[in-house]
Amino acid sequence: MRLRRYRSPEDASATYAVFHAAVRISAAECYDPDQIDAWAGPDLDDLTAWDAKRASAFTLVGEDADGVAGFADLLPDGLIDMLFVHPRLGGRGAARHLLEAIIAEARQRGMGSLTTHASRRARPVFERLGFVLVEDRPNNTVRGVVVPNAEMRLLLEQSLGDAVADQRDR
Ligand SMILES: CC(C)(COP(=O)(O)OP(=O)(O)OC[C@H]1O[C@@H](n2cnc3c(N)ncnc32)[C@H](O)[C@@H]1OP(=O)(O)O)[C@@H](O)C(=O)NCCC(=O)NCCS
Fold first, then answer.
1. Against a cut of 0.70, is the pTM above it?
2. Which of 14, 89, 148, 149 is 20 to 30 A from 29, alpha carbon to alpha carbon?
């Protein structure tokens, strides 16, 4: 899978299709149908707002020979808001590939930590990448339906140079 930056507006429909399939098929392993309906939301005909959100974040898109297969993002405050892999490519390291690139970007920006609100399906994936549980969120609600998730955090080590500078500034 090759990674590249999100392109607006042409990636909107393919990323939305990945989101839809990932929620409806992969996340359905961990949530009941009412929860999946709430999370997937009503089918969007107009992707203007979807596209604007993806374009305003640092969004990476993963492509294979069949097209867009996954995407993930990084917000300026260190939140990973989106991580979705099409089920056709599930279990083959696509999420790891995306997350490693997001982590590298965060390090390059000098961020001290990353956070996410991990679904039950994604929690073991974030754990494999070193994220730790901050707080279970059993009452998290989406469109009025309880869809539990968990706040998780990854502390990013400082480089030796940064650590020395911090020490000096104290
Ligand atoms: C969660 C999701 C992104 C995972 O994508 P994926 O490409 O299948 O995941 P990967 O194959 O890259 O797995 C990454 C690591 O997690 C591990 N892992 C994946 N699923 C796991 C599971 N259910 N239990 C334990 N470990 C798991 C893999 O073994 C792998 O570990 P390794 O690289 O050390 O061998 C995908 O299933 C998805 O889009 N789910 C629905 C939407 C969702 O929940 N998104 C997250 C919103 S917060």
1. yes
2. 14
